[in-house]
């Protein structure tokens, strides 16, 4: 998630789960090709398995970035076809690509030709209302033909006009059934469902119908949700870490980076929700916000 799941945030998540596939923030192809690619792509080896999410629309540029992403050793290259923000629309990519499915298909084909890493797509249910499901099925069929290896579906449509990104993530109704129906139509294609999935019980329920579950805000707001995922869903026998252990390990990591106090406070932000739902959570958030937590030994 843009500006949230930075490499540091992902380091925190890895302290809790060795198994989950993590995704980068959405990275515009222009930032890789014309910008400081090392700054936007570099990551810690512990973040594996890690997918790079690209935002772009020009097949040659997507191909170039998929190749560079593979050179950086990302485990999957994903194309964003779901972000409806006006800034992203102005770039001609994200959800507005659903207006031009040929470009999505050509982009994925070009990415596939450029890398041997799995190429995947994250999308919405649609942008038009009534014809969304039929459109999504047609697009999925074409994506499978050009070698898309997984589809992640945020289970609501997007509105390209008249809604803020926040409204676009919350005001429109979720339609999980449509994602289940898509899976039933494309049994060979791994399908991952996304949208307001906030508990282990909900994850287990969705997994009866689809192959995977993507968690966004629930994990950012309550990172400790990741602490039992390996044991509950991947058969891991390792001991679940306590919140205190995770906080200590992460703060030691931040201290080890040797940054100034201002940057340190930014890097501690992913810890804000660590005690969500637990007594004392607000004192924890205050201590983090005031920068009054002690430095850790590295
Ligand atoms: C601040 C913020 C930034 C986001 N950035 C991205 C992004 O870069 N790429 C993406 O595919 N989705 C992005 N999303 C959308 C989420 O990945 C997810 O699809 C959406 O929030 C619904 O899932 P959730 O209810 O589990 O959060 C972002 C969401 C938020 C709140």
Give a short summary of the structure.
This protein is α/β, with parallel strands linked by helices. It has 15 helices and seven strands.
Describe this structure in words.
Helices cover 44% and strands 12% of the residues. It is an alpha/beta fold. It folds into two domains: 7-233, TIM Barrel (Alpha-Beta Barrel), CATH 3.20.20; 243-290, no CATH class. Strands 1-2-3-4-5-6-7 form a seven-stranded parallel beta sheet. Helix 1 packs antiparallel against helix 13 and helix 4 (59-71) runs parallel beside helix 6. The model has no long low-confidence stretch (mean pLDDT 95). Flavin mononucleotide binds at residues 1-2, 4, 25-26, 53, 80, 82-83, 122, 154, 169, 194-197, 215-218. The site of flavin mononucleotide (FMN) has 20 residues, from strand 1 and helix 11.
Question: What's the architecture of the largest domain, going by CATH?
Answer: Alpha-Beta Barrel
Low-confidence stretches: none
- Overall tally of structural domains: 2
State the secondary-structure class: alpha/beta
What's the helix count? 15
Gross morphology: globular
Write down the Rg: 19 Å
Mean pLDDT: 95
The profile of the biggest β sheet is: 7 strands, parallel
- Name the CATH class of the largest domain: Alpha Beta
CATH topology-level name of the largest domain: TIM Barrel
Percent range of helical residues: 40-55%
- What small molecules does this complex bind? flavin mononucleotide
Gap between N and C termini: 28 Å
Query: SSE string, helix = H, strand = E?
Result: HEHHEHEHHEHEHHEHEHHHHH
């Amino acid at each position: 998630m843009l500006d949230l799941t930075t490499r540091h945030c992902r380091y925190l998540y890895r302290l809790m789960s060795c198994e989950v596939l993590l995704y980068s923030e959405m990275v515009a192809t222009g930032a890789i090709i014309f910008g400081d690619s090392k700054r936007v792509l570099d990551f810690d080896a512990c973040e594996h398995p890690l997918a790079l999410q690209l935002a772009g629309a020009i097949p040659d540029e997507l191909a170039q970035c998929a190749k560079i992403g593979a050179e950086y050793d990302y485990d999957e290259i994903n194309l964003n076809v779901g972000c409806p923000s006006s800034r992203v629309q102005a770039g001609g990519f994200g959800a507005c690509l659903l207006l031009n499915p040929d470009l999505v298909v050509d982009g994925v084909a070009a990415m596939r030709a450029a890398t041997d890493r799995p190429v995947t797509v994250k999308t919405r249910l649609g942008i038009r209302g009534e014809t969304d499901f039929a459109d999504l099925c047609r697009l999925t069929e074409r994506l499978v033909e050009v070698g898309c290896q997984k589809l992640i579906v945020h289970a609501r449509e997007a509105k390209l006009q008249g809604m803020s990104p926040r409204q676009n993530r919350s005001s429109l109704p979720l339609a999980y059934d449509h994602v289940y129906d898509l899976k039933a139509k494309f049994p060979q294609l791994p399908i991952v469902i996304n949208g307001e999935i906030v508990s282990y019980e909900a994850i287990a329920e969705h997994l009866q119908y689809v192959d995977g579950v993507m968690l966004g805000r629930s994990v950012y707001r309550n990172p400790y949700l990741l602490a039992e995922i390996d044991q509950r869903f991947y058969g891991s026998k390792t001991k679940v870490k306590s919140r205190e252990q995770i906080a200590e390990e992460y703060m030691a990591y931040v201290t080890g980076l040797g940054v100034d106090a201002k940057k340190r406070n930014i890097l501690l932000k992913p810890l804000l929700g660590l005690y969500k739902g637990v007594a004392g959570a607000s004192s924890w958030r205050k201590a983090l916000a005031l920068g009054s937590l002690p430095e850790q030994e590295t």
